[in-house]
Write a structure and sequence with these properties.
By secondary structure, the chain is an all-alpha fold. It contains five helices and no strands. It has helices at residues 3-19, 23-30, 36-40, 44-50, 54-73. Helix 2 (23-30) packs antiparallel against helix 5. The radius of gyration is 12 Å and the shape is globular.
């Protein structure tokens, strides 16, 4: 995945995170079947390359923060 697509993925993930009710909802909307990540990276090699980017690390952190906030709220 090139830098431009990685940045686009992060932008989409941030938008989805704001609307998500839980970390699971966020994960499914972004990484799940029919999710935005698959739309951006239809090829396996692209998806694997993305896992090594700074943007993936940030998306992973967003998901972790959603998990924390859901645990605190319950």
């Amino acid at each position: 995945m090139n830098e431009k697509r990685a940045k686009e993925a992060l932008k989409i993930a941030k938008k989805l995170a704001k609307a998500a009710k839980s970390a699971t909802d966020f994960h499914n909307a972004f990484f799940g079947v029919g999710g935005k990540f698959g739309e951006l990276s239809p090829e396996r090699a692209e998806r694997e390359a993305f896992l090594k980017t700074r943007q993936y690390q940030e998306i992973f952190q967003i998901r972790a923060e959603l998990e924390k906030s859901c645990k605190v709220a319950s």
